[in-house]
């Protein structure tokens, strides 16, 4: 039988909220630009919870476009958070090209960025 599926939640404990955390990840962590996003990450000690921070600037568009970009990036992280090789603080910056993209296109860019950064487990790499 299959083991019980992992819960795909994204609660408050899984979010970066303070500007000093964003600044720490951007200054001390690693960076990768791919497709419609920029990924900044910093490894955490084993046993920690992966955390996500999102940045959407007014260059993307109005509030509707920015909120949609945040929702798409947050959902990509939520669905694949258990496939990370190690816990990380992850800051995703939406680029202008995210406007008008479907969820599958954003998810594809997100997974490609994590694969290139060697942050995804090989067996659970997801759709190509």
Overview of this protein structure:
With 128 residues, the chain is of the alpha+beta class. It has one domain: Ribosomal Protein S5, domain 2, CATH 3.30.230.10. 33% of the residues lie in helices and 19% in strands. Strand 3 (51-55), helix 2 and strand 4 form a beta-alpha-beta unit. The longest helix is centred in the middle third of the chain and has 18 residues, at 63-80. The mean pLDDT is 89.
Which properties best describe this structure?
alpha+beta; 128 residues; Ribosomal Protein S5, domain 2; 19% strand; globular; 4 strands
Any chance you could write out the topology, listing elements then pairs?
Blueprint: H1 19-28, E1 30-34, E2 37-43, E3 51-55, H2 63-80, E4 88-94, H3 103-116
Parallel strand pairs: 3-4
Antiparallel strand pairs: 1-2, 2-4
Brief overview, please?
The protein has three helices and four strands.
Helix % is: 25-40%
**How many strands, which pairing sense, and closed or not: the largest β-sheet?**
4 strands, mixed
**Count of runs of 4 or more consecutive helical residues:** 3
Residue share in β-strands:
15-25%
In one word, what is the shape? globular
The second-level CATH architecture is 2-Layer Sandwich
- Named CATH topology: Ribosomal Protein S5, domain 2
- The H/E string reads HEEEHEH
Content-based structural category: alpha+beta
Structural domain count: 1
- Unreliably modeled segments: none
Number of strands: 4
Quickly name the level 1 CATH class: Alpha Beta
Strand order of the largest sheet: 1-2-4-3
């Amino acid at each position: 039988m299959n083991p019980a599926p992992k819960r795909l939640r994204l609660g408050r404990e899984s979010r970066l909220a303070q500007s000093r955390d964003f600044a720490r990840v951007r200054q001390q962590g690693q960076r990768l630009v791919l497709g419609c996003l920029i990924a900044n990450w910093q490894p955490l000690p084993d046993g920690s919870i992966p955390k996500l921070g999102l940045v959407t600037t007014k260059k993307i568009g109005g509030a509707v476009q920015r909120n949609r970009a945040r929702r798409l990036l947050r959902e990509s992280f939520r669905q694949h958070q258990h496939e990370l090789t190690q816990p990380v603080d992850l800051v995703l910056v939406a680029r202008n090209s995210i406007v008008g993209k479907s969820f599958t296109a954003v998810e594809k860019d997100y997974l490609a960025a994590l694969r290139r950064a060697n942050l995804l487990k090989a067996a659970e790499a997801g759709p190509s």
